[in-house]
Design a protein that fits this description.
With 288 residues, the protein is mainly α. It contains 11 helices and no strands. The chain has one domain. It comes from Streptomyces arboris.
């Protein structure tokens, strides 16, 4: 790798094992913003090269939007569309913005399993011996997964428009919806990084992730309007951050009041990031 793209060189030979937390924190504090950005760029390039060598890792991003859209529109579109006072076409306009909100959650799981797998292979131990900010390793992971999320959203929107979805607002509203989904998705990725650093195997991360994702996704307004749910589930749905995100994205794309849902979603994203990002970096430094 050329000197213009990275300064990630192994540390001088010395005792094996992770760098002590205090020393790592001191090193990170001495690294400037420009160097930190260079490190993130180099690590992003490394992760992209991994995807290039293993294109099968993109199958979930390429196929998930297609499968979910076709499955829910043609299996549930008639009945749920009727509850919305319309037909399958109305359900398509309701579903696609909700699926945009869901993309970040599903792709976030790959961050946790990827971090866990890198530790198992010893890759992360090598990174921790290098003179780089510990946060740059994790931020690079999130940047690449956000790129994968954007690919999934583009495919999802292409499927939606191909099936007849109509945009009720404007292209600007659509871009704002994509940006909001990306902000919330990045926040959720910090949770899965913590899971990846806390659990012993990638399979355990995936299993725990499914236990978290399933209630949040199906107990929300992503797939069906909460008005059709029993009262106790409506209460859960009202406080579910995915419902706020789905409603905000739907409003930005299809029209309607959005201010409350947008600000609530941004508050959730900020709160999750402020709590989980420092915890993830701390666990990364201390993980044996």
């Amino acid at each position: 790798m050329s000197s213009t793209t990275t300064t990630l060189t192994p540390a001088p030979a010395g005792p094996a094992g992770p760098v002590p937390a205090k020393a790592a924190a001191a090193d990170e504090g001495r690294i400037g913003l420009r160097a930190n950005l260079r490190h993130i760029g180099a690590l992003v390039r490394r992760n992209l090269l991994q995807i290039k060598k293993d294109p099968e890792s993109m199958f979930d991003v390429l196929l998930m939007p297609v499968i979910f859209t076709l499955l829910f529109v043609y299996v549930f579109g008639g009945s749920v569309g009727g509850s919305l006072g319309g037909d399958r076409q109305d359900y398509l306009n309701y579903l696609v913005p909700g699926l945009m909100a869901m993309m970040g959650m599903n792709i976030a799981m790959a961050v946790g399993t990827g971090v866990n797998d890198d530790f198992r292979k010893g890759v992360m131990d090598r990174f921790r011996t290098m003179p780089i900010a510990r946060s740059s390793v994790l931020i690079a992971k999130i940047v690449v997964e956000l790129g994968r999320m954007m690919v999934a959203i583009v495919i999802l929107l292409a499927m939606g428009f191909a099936l007849g979805m109509t945009l009720g607002t404007s292209v600007l509203g659509l871009l704002e919806a994509v940006a909001l989904a990306a902000v919330f998705g990045a926040a959720i990725m910090w949770i899965f990084i913590v899971l990846g650093l806390s659990m012993k195997t990638a399979q355990a991360v995936q299993g725990m992730g499914m236990l978290v994702l399933m209630p949040l996704q199906f107990g929300s307004s992503i797939f069906a309007p909460p008005q059709t749910m029993p009262g106790w589930l409506q209460t859960f749905t009202d406080y579910n951050p995915l419902s706020n995100l789905a409603d905000a994205v739907r409003g930005l794309m299809m029209g309607g009041p959005v201010a409350g849902s947008v600000w609530t979603t941004l508050a959730w994203a900020a709160g999750i990031t402020l709590v989980m990002a420092p915890l993830a970096v701390s666990k990364f430094r201390k993980k044996a």
